[in-house]
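Lecture notes, structural biology module. Today: joint structure prediction for complexes of two components.
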Amino acid sequence: MNQTDSINQSEPDAKIRLRLWLRLLKASRSIESVIRENLRTQFATTLPRFDVMSALSRYDKGLKMSALSGVLKVSNGNVTGIVDRLVQDGLAIRVPVAGDRRAHLARLTKKGSDEFAVQAAAHEGWINDLLSGFDADTAAALCAHLDTAAPATDET
Amino acid sequence: MNQTDSINQSEPDAKIRLRLWLRLLKASRSIESVIRENLRTQFATTLPRFDVMSALSRYDKGLKMSALSGVLKVSNGNVTGIVDRLVQDGLAIRVPVAGDRRAHLARLTKKGSDEFAVQAAAHEGWINDLLSGFDADTAAALCAHLDTAAPATDET
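The predicted structure, tokenised, for the full assembly:
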């Protein structure tokens, strides 16, 4: 009886967490799919390109290509190719690193910075709509919970 | 002043939801990456293959290839190739559909069903560990919330 009891007690928790995982996966995939589609139709851009511009926008002085690669683990983009295109489009420039002749920083131009600001505002609006079912208190509580409860295995 | 007030009030909600989205994305990606790694090292299998077996395991009588493709939108696998390998490995069979000479169902064999049961139990255990920071009540509440609040755009 004791054994049965402990199985009955531990079983539901695992099942509930499995259900939570499937729900989280489904929600994040469906949101990501909307974002990719919106970026494509409204800005003729891609999620990896948006992610690169987002990373660059946080570093006024530029970011080394190696640091950018870390950022892009997330969207599996080809960082070098993306930066090449941004440079061609006048949205970014490459600048030499003082004291290291082989290293370069990538940095947004004024034009790139302005363009990203428009995209980022739209992106924030899409997310705000997509997650409108979460009121601010619930969203904040869930953020805090994810920070402490969910693993962060791919942080380096 | 009224305009400023309304901007100040609406701004934080959007920012909090954006933060929630980034947390959700990070959590689901890091969990998925652990799952892929565990499937590889412990069962020499892949997530798309696991997903196909999971879908087949829910249909004793077999599942049409077209229905399987819907399932696999999720993990972007090549359904035909995966089923071919499962058949080669004796884990699945293809059976003709009565009344439709061109259609086939895929179905797990006894061996496939037994092998998947072992993998599914391990998978449930990994998720249970990875999400152990969510107690059952919190997890159940979040599931319910995701069902009502998150979009389900890729359901067909």
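Point to remember: The first helix of chain B runs from residue 2 to 43.
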